[in-house]
Model the fold of this input.
Amino acid sequence: MKKKLAVIAGLALAGAAFAQVDTTRPMVTGRGNVDARPGRVIVTNQTAQPASDDALKLEKFVVTGSLLPHKAAKAPAKK
Amino acid sequence: MNAAEISVPALRRPLAAVAAALALTATAWAGLGVYAPGGMPTGHTVSAEQLWQQFDRTLPPGVWVSPLENDVYEVISAKWMRRTFLPALKQEMKQLWRDGVPEENAAGNCNGFALVCRLMLSLSAMEAHARAPAAATVIVHQAKPFGGLSATNEDHCVAFVLTDEGPWIIEVQSGAYIRISDYPNLPHVKLVSVH
Done:
């Protein structure tokens, strides 16, 4: 009886997992949608770069998408 | 000067013109052509969700599957595949071999041939006004021999086709096919691209 219940529960869970998949987005077998797992990143940039242990520092303007690499300097005072 | 001597140069001019025209035509049509067989049976379809379930059920865990951009896909008749499509595919591959197309790290590699197979299938489906074929390109690590290709231990490209007898893997370069459950390199499938 317990086995039957486990099988039924398993099938129900599998059905629920199928229902949750958005087929218009990339998927991974056994897991579902890739972007439903934000912790997993697909590396698309295969350019060889020297290894670095330094943590990447993001500046405020880089993060917000501004083209300014640094804070804008104050405009000169009007004469 | 007899009649024969007069007629030869007179004949040569039109013959030369015809030969030149044929040469020009041959130059203009020197590209490669693909023949797609007709008569694809239609009407047996699966939804995108059902196609995903096929992949999820039959492939090992961790295989990347591309988005499915259509709502419905055509399931291909296994009988038509055996009797009509695969013989045409073999002919196409023989022609590409005669044309000296196969080449490493070039358009004429395993990936290019898998795309030719899918193009033929798509053209057949278009001719039949069918849904998009339930087919895909599969990248796999060729750890074991299949379809005439030895165990190269390199990445290889084959075709996936969902038939009414179940999913098949096709080695497009030889036209060999097998049920996916019996495919010797099934544990080494890496990526499935439907579009």
Residues 1-43 of chain A form one domain. The interface with chain B takes residues 18, 21, 23-31, 34, 42 of chain A (CB under 8 Å). The helical segments of chain A are 2-20, 60-63. The longest strand of chain A covers residues 27-28.
